[in-house]
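User: Show me sequence and structure for the first protein, then do the same for the second.

Assistant: Starting with the first protein.
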Amino acid sequence: MTAATHSSLFPQVPESADAVLDGLDPEQREVATALHGPVCVLAGAGTGKTRAITHRIAYGVRAGILPPASVLAVTFTNRAAGEMRGRLRQLGAGGVQARTFHSAALRQLQYFWPKVVGGDVPRLLERKIQLVAESAARCRIRLDRNELRDVTSEIEWAKVTQTVPADYPAAVAKSLRDAPRDTSEISQIYAMYEQLKRDRAVIDFEDVLLLTVGILQDRQDIADQIRRQYQHFVVDEYQDVSPLQQRLLDLWLGDRESLCVVGDASQTIYSFTGATPDHLLNFRTRHPSAAVIKLVRDYRSTPQVVHLANGLLNQASGRAAEHRLELISQRDPGPDPAYLEYADEPAEAEGTASRIRDLIATGVPAGEIAVLYRINAQSEVYEQALADAGVPYQLRGAERFFERQEVREAGVALRGAARAGANDSLLDDAGDLPSQVRAVLSTKGWTTEPPAGSGAVRDRWESLAALVRLAEDFVRVKPEATLADLVAELDERAAAQHAPTVQGVTLASLHAAKGLEWDAVFLVGLTEGMMPITYAKTDEQVEEERRLLYVGVTRARLHLSLSWALSRSPGGRASRRPTRFLNGLRPGSLAPGARTPGGAATAERGGGRRKRRGPALCRVCGRTLTEAGEMKLMRCEDCPSDMDEGLYERLREWRSDQAKQLGQPAYCVFTDKTLMAIAEAVPGDEGELTMISGVGGRKLERFGADVLAICAGQEPSGTEEED
């Protein structure tokens, strides 16, 4: 899912420092060779920022300028830190510390705590939600499960913005933040939570940063010791630092300026956690001598995808927008983004699953496809649609690969087989390394064919199959490799958290997709109220929603689909509108501020069967239609109808029978307006039937034959039973 997927998994270590620079473009090379003084790298999506900064560190180490132990590279996720460690190892720069802020601070806290306080560091509270629940109960404040999660997030936000309980209400008002409960209640819960932690001698992840900051502020000798250890700092995703993280970074640096930061203000999407791009945007003010290098060559996405991404930012406003980067695609042209409008959410999910199945049939691996949505609650309908279509999928945010039980068990089995060698009867008929791995993993549930359906059994198989594919890749690069060599590689990857790709379509929220990429991306549910989300009220909140969509668009390498549904459920009122962020960008839509009579959108309908260009016009009088019901009939309500009344009644009787057998309301089969449109058009084949609004792919498959038979004056073949 990352750029590393498309390069060799086991590249040769460069022979020299200069060889580390091979393959870098001029701007990346400028980053890699800027080893002194403050450096600010403004890197757009897909421009190879991780490549540039890892080669910078590796070049400095290999050239003897940066002692490995003196470098601390900081990023925001364990996955990103693991990927950075893996890349540095491949470049011959082992020994460099690449950690998250929390991991680096915790390591320092554990080392210095006995000297500063005495004894062991308090126990780390890995899940604070239970203690928050107890705190609320002690304050006699009832919270449901959703409120509990929200209040927990509020406490985290308060701590990273260095806000104490008493100041929380004022801080919320000042930041225009929407609190999930009365701010005085949250302040009480927050204070009780802090008290319970003190009583039980536990700390949370935010305390790790706060306590480290406190030690470095109070103990000059310890601050000096850390500064002697770490002379050079690199911070990735700098647009996401919180005030607390910036304070810790300042204390690590002291009065030095050996700092390189990398970020993109247009990808600031975590302000709700306390992240702010201000530190990136103010870097030149804080460090007047800083070198500023821009990376704008996009190696990830086609010109068509990049054009849409640039268009989104061109309509943006605010301070981050003033520093936007105009990307320049370095790839060959590809297909235009698809804009798809569906009648309802189930039809959108079904159409998406169908298009994904078609992509897989053309050779796009399932693991190179993602469905991205605004909130996690949207995933269920896509899980069901993909399962119904027989398409494997995985939910982003699941347990880490090497921490899964089946992977741990497989590692034990492979390690045992490697020790036994020729004495293991499992390996008697296995001539090469991949065959040996298959033989060992067959005892753990791996089979040549995946199990049917989805669920835990399929998830287990996918994990084991990923290990088999890794063995096949490994032996292609190292033909003489043994099972022991592979086990050693797996151990290194586990330490670096460098997991092989599990093959399956990824379902993820837009926030969870940050930092990832796929060959094909489906952005779904793009309606007003969801994108921007309904609770984005201020201009800055709306602009962050635009940036979130920008992040989603720039995850796609080649294929990009953007879709929305006009109603939530079948037969519902078609009152939704596609997101304003696509105005002037999708075909037939008007740029912000433009006006036209009717204002009907142009979009592909029902998975690509129909296009409506320009405003919908009455087929009788030619007037522009604005009501959903009129547009379904393609005529004004009061214009004369040429409907076949007898056909309409036969369709109604058939619909009534269908609804009874399915146990659903009649409108779930077809609405009255759709039946009227069918009776007026009298379609003769599937192509004509699908031209009628309300007849999507799912309903065509289930009811199309019956409807066409009735229109032809024949008896329907019968009712399809529910699965």
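Switching to the second protein now.
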Amino acid sequence: MTHPTEHSLVQGGRSAALATACVRGGVAAGLGLGALAVLVTAAWISSPYPDGGPGGALHVASGLWLLAHGVDVVRTDTLSGLPAPLGIAPMLLAALPVWLVHRAARDTLDPGDDGDRPRPSPSGTVAAVAGGYLLVTAVVVVYSESGPLPADLITAGLWLPAVVLGAAGAGVWTALGRPLPGQRQAAAALRATGLGLVTLCGGGAVLAAVSLAWHAGEAQAAFTGLAGEWSGRAAVLLLVLALLPNAAVWGAAYGLGPGFTLGTGVLATPLGLAGDPAVPSFPLLAALPAEGRGTWVHWAAAAVPLAATLVQGWRVGRTAKGWPARDAALTALASAWGCGAAVAVLAAAAGGPLGSGRLSAFGPVWWQAGAATVLWGACLGVPVALTVRAWGRRALRPKPLPLPLSVPAPASVPVPVPASVSASAPSGTGFGEPFDLEAQPDAAPDAAPGGQAPQATGTDPGTPAAATMPSAPTSVPAPAPALELDLDDDPGYEPYDYLPAAWEPSPPPPDPKA
């Protein structure tokens, strides 16, 4: 009875967690839409000539919110009366909804202080948060159809789920501690891809800022010509700020080589601007290069992908110091492909149509920008990675040991022999007489100097004589000349004071009758 009850409780807890995650996704969508609606309503109220009522402002807010997710909208209130598509999404405006989805998925999977509450699985978290968010977006898509900026259903079915699922997956990855693949090559390739992408986009932002500063006069004229009152200028300024990430991606695509299109048949590259551009008056568009062939100033834009590729290859080479050359080359090539895929996605999000006819193609071409990034990484990043790896392996090689120096042999030093050793060692001349360590090999062990045999000192006839004593070694090798000790010259030398003879008879006991 206990096991089914606990199982039902666990299943009920997981179901409640999934329902909570779905609610979190819907709340995230509502927060993003509400924040944008507040900005649009404030601009409508502050406008001196407001068109429509509050319903029109809400329709504009819903259209802009869908545009921030990459959905193309259609402008119905054009001067010609013909509907015109609008597909360039302000990428800074997209940061708010993406961050809200990311936070909802992260907070759902991360227990925080309440570690006892049930949590869904990572895949269930992504599905639940994205499902709740997409339910709200479906309602907004239907609502926008009756306004001035209806959504394009094809792009709404493609881009919306991709953006929401990607943001929810990133939130789950963050909650899990941002783990990388277990294989070292894949992890190194991902790190190098992120570093190269940041360097490339940062360099594109620098290019766009320098060009905008170079054409500051044209940009100021376009800014003042769009709106005369402060409310209109504030709205234009907010739109410029929202499009700054787009300008950075355009600058990166320009430095890569393919450049970007300014309408059908018009291409801007470092080699020059070909065609007759038909662009509206806007401050950011004043930074576009002039018509004609490019100069060394335009060619200097190639320093951006060059720096990004060098940084990317350096990162791979530094990580692959202890790897084989084949693994290092494959890792650098994989990072080039990863960076190319990311650049292709960013280029597709930064560009799009601004209208119909000649303005139907505007911005970088996604597949050209991605292919150019892969080409830069394969042709330059792989050799740089191999070079850095080879240079780093120099520190890993063992240094050769120095050859031993020839040391001259030390001079012979006389080695003193302790008195105890000389006294206890047997000699062929008897106890108490000096002996020579450098005895001749042919000398008899029991022969004494002068040819006399040693005499026994004991009185016991059964005691063995000196012939029973162990003979002295014939020769003792020594590195230095032996030191001959003459103990007869020492007047205080008494051999039997400390070496008693075992064969001497003990004194007779005293007579008790005496």
